[in-house]
């Protein structure tokens, strides 16, 4: 039996225990002279099974604990952490954090978030769905997924199927008196396949990621999807260098939105390392385009009532009518910029890119291909060629050449390049084919013109 399937659900009691420990350590930190203190404690439990060619490759059970403490002596900060929750280790962590704080330089931006911004409402966001699957069942599921994919004619090998079940408990507490408890589950299935032989060989994959196991696509459907994607890449060609419209598939399009988030995040801004520096209130995208943060989506991958500092989250536009409505800030970066936290310490909470176009239509994937007309569909990007300072974008890519709204043939070994500023401004449409497997929820994104470098 797995650790997940074999035990009763004691998550609420464990959260209470973590909260009690966090409160006690904060009291001891204050007694040691700290003016402020905060604790983040977590317990993560998981089962991970990998199957290849019908045989078990790995079985991994995890139970990881973390305890991080930050103390402030005025504006001097010290942090320490441990994976051991025994009293001796906790005391050593406290002593180390206090010692560090006493000898560090003062930082005017250091300190806890504003106490008036602490979350007070903690709705049930339906994030807790333990998967009662044992090791034997996980192996059998992985074998079914892989068998479904390998059954397709033309599939010549497999890199394996993976079945993962995970539970996470976390508590954040600080000396303002705030105590926030969170529990969530994340489960995933994946399959990677190979088609063809020798120089014709191609690899592709598919996966699903959910909060609740009942939301998974079926084993057969996942195997079919991985096989279809892999077989579609056979006989891929190169392209001559050209300029053309580019359609980013939904799972790739969310990376573009991620580049926007990175450029408007506090760290890049106060270091003056962003091409969108001083762009709040300015147009960065077409006037029909809206991007909204929605922290309270039920079963959302990024849902949460508070951020990593206890600040209450809220529904809030990031891009409204094409205009950058705000930055993405925690308390430290906000103070460095002379602004206020946006409740984004630790990251974003479900960023929704609303489907649409200048004509007001929101189309499915087939409709987005028709809108592309003749150009490049990108289904994979490679390399790290994105410069947040300048906005220059240049990455290896693979996908499909599209003619008259229909896929003509697969392409590989090409590079796509432009500047993110021009790419964002040149978005022609966002599809309704939303990929739900991430905290960035977007459909495919059509960019009007990029350089495609090939042969």
TrEMBL record:
Residues 37-101 form the Metalloprotease TldD/E N-terminal domain. GO terms for molecular function: metallopeptidase activity. Residues 129-234 form the Metalloprotease TldD/E central domain. Residues 241-454 form the Metalloprotease TldD/E C-terminal domain. Coiled coil: none annotated. It comes from the Bacteria. It holds the Pfam family PmbA_TldD_1st. InterPro entries: Metalloprtase-TldD/E_C (IPR045569), Metalloprtase-TldD/E_cen_dom (IPR045570), Metalloprtase-TldD/E_N (IPR002510), PmbA (IPR047657), TldD/PmbA_N (IPR035068), TldD/PmbA_sf (IPR036059). One of its GO terms (biological process) is proteolysis. One of its GO terms (cellular component) is cytosol. Belongs to the peptidase U62 family. This is Microcin-processing peptidase 1.
């Amino acid at each position: 039996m797995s650790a997940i399937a074999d035990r009763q659900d004691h998550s609420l009691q464990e959260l209470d225990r973590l909260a009690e420990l966090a409160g006690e350590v904060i009291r001891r930190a204050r007694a040691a002279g700290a003016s402020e203190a905060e604790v983040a404690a977590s317990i993560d439990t998981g089962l991970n099974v990998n199957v290849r060619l019908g045989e078990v490759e790995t079985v991994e059970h995890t139970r990881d604990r973390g305890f991080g403490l930050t103390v402030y002596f005025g504006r001097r900060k010290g942090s320490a952490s441990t994976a051991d929750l025994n009293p001796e280790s906790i005391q050593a962590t406290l002593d180390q954090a206090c010692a560090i704080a006493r000898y560090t330089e003062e930082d005017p931006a250091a300190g806890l978030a504003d106490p008036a911004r602490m979350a007070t409402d903690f709705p049930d966001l339906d994030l807790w769905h333990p998967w009662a699957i044992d090791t034997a069942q996980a192996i059998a599921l992985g074998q079914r997924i892989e068998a479904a994919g390998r059954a397709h004619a033309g599939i010549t090998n497999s890199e394996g199927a993976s079945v993962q079940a995970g539970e996470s408990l976390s508590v954040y507490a600080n000396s303002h008196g705030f105590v926030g408890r969170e529990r969530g589950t994340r489960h995933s299935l994946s399959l990677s396949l190979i088609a063809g032989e020798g120089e014709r060989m191609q690899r592709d994959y598919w996966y699903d990621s959910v909060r609740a196991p009942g939301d998974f696509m079926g084993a057969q459907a996942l195997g079919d999807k991985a096989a279809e994607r892999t077989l579609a890449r056979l006989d891929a060609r190169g392209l001559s260098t050209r300029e053309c419209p580019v359609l980013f598939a939904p799972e790739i399009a969310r990376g573009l939105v991620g580049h926007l988030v990175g450029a408007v995040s506090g760290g890049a801004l106060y270091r003056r390392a962003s091409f969108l520096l001083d762009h709040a209130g300015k147009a960065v995208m077409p006037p029909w385009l809206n991007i909204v943060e929605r922290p309270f989506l039920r079963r959302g991958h990024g849902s949460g009532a508070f951020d990593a500092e206890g600040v209450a989250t809220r529904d809030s536009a990031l891009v409204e009518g094409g205009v950058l409505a705000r930055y993405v800030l925690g308390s430290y970066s906000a103070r460095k910029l002379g602004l206020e936290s946006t409740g984004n310490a630790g990251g974003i909470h479900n960023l929704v890119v609303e489907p649409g176009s200048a004509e007001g239509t929101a189309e499915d994937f087939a409709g987005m291909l028709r809108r592309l007309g003749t150009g490049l569909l990108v289904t994979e990007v490679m390399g790290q060629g994105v410069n947040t300072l300048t906005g220059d974008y240049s990455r290896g890519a693979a996908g499909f050449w599209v003619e008259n709204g229909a896929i003509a043939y697969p392409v590989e070994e090409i590079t796509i390049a432009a500047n993110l500023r021009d790419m964002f401004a040149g978005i022609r449409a966002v599809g309704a084919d939303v990929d739900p497997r991430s905290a960035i929820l977007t459909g495919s994104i059509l960019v009007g013109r990029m350089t495609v470098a090939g042969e």
